[in-house]
Design brief:
This protein has 362 residues and is an alpha/beta fold. The chain has helices at 7-18, 55-63, 88-95, 114-121, 132-138, 140-148, 178-189, 198-204, 249-255, 277-286, 298-306; strands spanning 32-37, 40-46, 71-76, 99-104, 125-128, 152-159, 164-167, 193-197, 219-223, 243-247, 263-267, 270-271, 274-275, 291-296, 312-317, 325-327, 344-351, 354-360. The protein has 11 helices and 18 strands. A 9-stranded mixed β-sheet has the order 11-10-9-8-14-6-15-18-17, with helices on both faces. A 5-stranded mixed β-sheet has the order 2-1-3-4-5, with helices on both faces. A two-stranded antiparallel sheet has the order 7-16. α3 runs parallel beside α4 (114-121). The longest helix is centred in the N-terminal third of the chain and has 12 residues, at 7-18.
Length: 362
Amino acid sequence: MRVRNSDEEFMAAALKLAKRGLGYTSPNPAVGSVVVKSGQIIAGDYHRRAGEPHAEALALKRAGEAARGADLYVTLEPCSFHGRTPPCTEAIIAAGIRRVVIGTIDPNPKVNGQGIKALRKNGLEVLTGILAERCWELNRAHAKFMTRRLPLVTVKYAQSLDGRLATITGSSQWISSDKSLKYAHRLRAQHDAVLVGARTAKLDNPQLTVRYVKGRNPIRLIITNSGKISRRLRLLKDKASPVLIVTGRAGARRLAGWVGPKTEIMILAAKDGKLDLHDLLVRLGEREITSLLVEGGAEIITGFLKQNLADRIITIIAPILIGEGISAVGDLSIRLIDQAKKLTNVQMRKIGPDCAIIGDLN
């Protein structure tokens, strides 16, 4: 099918709608859709939460009878199976849509081309791959979860120009600017869960919430091999969102008998004397947690990088020098420069006085 000059414009409009659902729809993807007739958008909507109507159904409902003979743009392939909601393909066919333009195929094994097949079987024109990279990136966590049943892992930290997370005394609040702090909260809002180590939790006493932006608070994880954890931590008392204390069997015995409100202990297997981080990802996947933001500290960051468990890294560099202090990343067993972990799809973003470097790993 011929690509029209306006196809990317209308798909961009659908993407803009889809982004409104980011952080709210998990384990479902964030999807946007617009109905176009005579070169004009006559209706549009987005998926809000799992179990609620999908973007296509909402957009078609808004369009009503005007949808007959129109084009439908949707960022992700329409579903073709009965789940918590009816198949979107049936709604599209019943509405009299004549042409469907899709951003990217849904990797969900229950869909994965079946939606396109159903539409074409019923005589609809279907075009795929419009703004495909942008549509895929929006639901990258969904794609990994559907294909591997593991959450997408983003390692994020702020450091000084000379690579320090904190001073030699552990002081780190705040290395980066207020604008970077707000950016970090926006990242939390886009993830299902956020993780820190027990030492970082003790030093910073963070809330790990999204209080500076609009959004949903992620599930909060504290990881501790020993089970030693301060009971005075704010996140153990505030009830803002559930807390998982991740530890081993010995640590669980130490923690037995006390948990805060909305707090649970998760026991992990051990590997080489340390908690098995891959086991953590498997366990989170079993809970339908599709994205994990790792915020530190250095030992936790190093563990995820050394075991090749991070999919993406976000480093915020503040224009300050600390000198001797706590390094952001520890020993990765790299002895030759050719062994260095290299980022791909690198982006650089100015955030106030700071610079964020964003790239993919693996």
